Amino acid sequence: MTPLPLAQKATGWFFGPVALGRVAAMRFLAGAFIWVDWWWYMPWILGHRHVPGELYQPLFIARVLPVFPVPSYWIVVGTLVVMLAASIPMMLGKAPRLFGWICAVAYFEWMIIAMSYGKVDHGKFGFLLLLFLLPTMPKAKWGDRRNLSEHVGWGFNLVQIGVVCTYFFAAWAKFRYGGFEWVNSATMTWAIIRRGTEFSTWMLDYPWLLRLSQWGMVSFELLSPIVMFVAAKRLRYGIVAFFYVFHLTVFLAVEISFLPHMVAMACFLPLERIQPRDLIRNLPRLPGRIRRKLQARKAIPAQAGATDPAREAEAAS
Amino acid sequence: MSVDEPQVSKVRPVGKAVRVAITMAVLALVTATTFWGADDFFPFAPFKMYSFSKELDGWTGSTRVEVVNAEGVRFSLTESATGFRRAEVEGQKSRFVEDPPLLCYIAEAYENTNPDKPEIVTVEIIERQFELKDGYQTGEVVEVVEAATTCEGADQ
Fold first, then answer.
1. For the segment A214-253, what is each residue's pLDDT rounded down to a tens digit?
2. What count of other Cβ atoms lies within 10 Å of the Cβ of residue A204?
3. Hey, what's the torsion of the CAs at A121, A124, A125, A127, to 10 degrees?
């Protein structure tokens, strides 16, 4: 049976080959975030080691799967130690699949410890997907642009879907809980009263501006799936850059950063182009190199892509 | 095959079917929990950060836990003093209101975190409510003790 061209195209969308270099970079970023997370981003999770088990309220998953113990001092500390210990070889690419699995399972237990006392935080969905998909990918070297893999393509495609869902369904959650009138409500005013900064409090005097920003946010969230279907790479990177700028703006306005989400989103970018060794060696000369590269690109706009076979091969990533 | 030629490792057809099914399952779960689920289904919880419509007229509240220790000193418990967050107090508030002696477990968390400090005798959840008009505080403030209990010797 020959598959229909449309079906072929659809499966191609799930399995666009991605260079292995990106896997090494994402492993490093994921492990690095785990260190930032327990120490700086969510330090209160460790505080749960002192909270009596009577205040533990198991989530659905823990009630269905009887593998999650009631957190005690040593369960909390032990989970942290295992998670941190496994993250280092994962970051450095030593037995990355084995340590990736250990890291993913330990981090999931860490999240169960965090979210089972009456408050669930959102915005880690993409990062959790990333942690569980990285171990399905092969061992990889930084800067490897020659070996491409459909396995990796599928994994990062699913992480990207998770990232986009976080935006897209956040808009629907607003409609569900706040109603369609959310866009005209005073939610941003309330957010800035609660946690505004010197960059945002002036906006309280211009409520129409805040309402406009709510319209803007919901439109961008609803339109975000476009990034999954854009073929032109520059446009795609441009949209991802817009997402990052959005998070920077939100952080400056109300100091909410969605850091793990931003880490997961990095898999949209061609991180396989990063060679840490070359980068460190060339760091002092970097501004000059960028300038020369831009000039070269201006000089031969048409052939720029054809001269580099590795770049051609990435077309589908 | 030349050295520069890229190598693409392919997924076999069965593997493709399994993987597409996994992606579809994740999408189905996240869609379902957005419209019908609740936080309980973490990690598939509705992404409801700042999703409530806020009225700038009415009452808005702020919850705190206040305690009195064995030396008679009254103070509010912070997140870092207990490891139990304010949002978690709010999340379990109905439980505490129904069964106030549960508040002693917050006292226990404080004593575990600060073993050298005097023990806690009473625990109260207090909600301070502000009246808002057009987003401005009218100055009208009401304090309500929502739950209170005495824990003397509770954990001996």
1. 999 999 999 999 999 998 999 999 999 999 999 999 999 9
2. 15
3. -170
pLDDT on residue A303: 52
- Could you tell me which residues come within 8 angstroms of residue A190 by beta carbon, excluding any fewer than 6 positions away? B54, B56, B135
Q: Which of residues 19-38 of B touch A (CB under 8 A)?
A: 19-20, 22-23, 26-27, 30-31, 34-35
The answer to whether B88 and A119 have CB atoms below 8 angstroms apart is yes
d(CA A297, CA B128) in angstroms, rounded, equals 63
Q: Is A36 helix (H, G, I), strand (E, B) or coil?
A: helix
Q: Is the ipTM of this complex over 0.90?
A: no
Q: Chain A within 8 Å of B113 (Cβ-Cβ)?
A: yes
Question: What count of CB pairs under 8 Å joins A to B?
Answer: 200
Beta bridge partners of B148: B124
Structural domain boundaries of chain B?
Answer: 1-52, 58-150
Q: Give dist(CA A227, CA A249) in Å, integer.
A: 20
Per-residue pLDDT of B71-83, as tens digits, reads 999 999 988 899 9
Dist. CA A154–CA B20, nearest whole Å: 9
Q: Could you read off the pLDDT of A7-41 as tens digits, one per residue?
A: 777 788 999 999 999 999 999 999 999 999 999 99
**Angle, to 10 degrees, between the axis of helix A21-36 and the axis of helix A73-92?**
150
State the angle between helix axes of A125-133 and A150-178 in degrees (0 to 180), rounded to the nearest 10: 160
Residue of A nearest to B89 (CA): A118
Q: Which residue is listed with tokens 């396989």?
A: A272
Distance CA B132, CA A3 (A): 63
Q: Where do we find the tokens 């957010």?
A: A191
Residue B143 backbone phi and psi in degrees, to 5: -115, 130
Least-confidence region, from A87-96, A187-196, B89-98: A187-196
CA closest to B45 among chain A residues: A122
Q: Phi and psi of B139, rounded to 5°?
A: 95, -10
Question: What whole-number distance in Å separates Cα of residue A197 and Cα of residue A255?
Answer: 8
Q: Do A47 and B84 touch (CB under 8 A)?
A: yes
Spell out the residues 6+ positions from residue B32 whose beta carbon is closer than 8 angstroms to its own.
B44
| Both tokens assigned to B24 | 């579809």
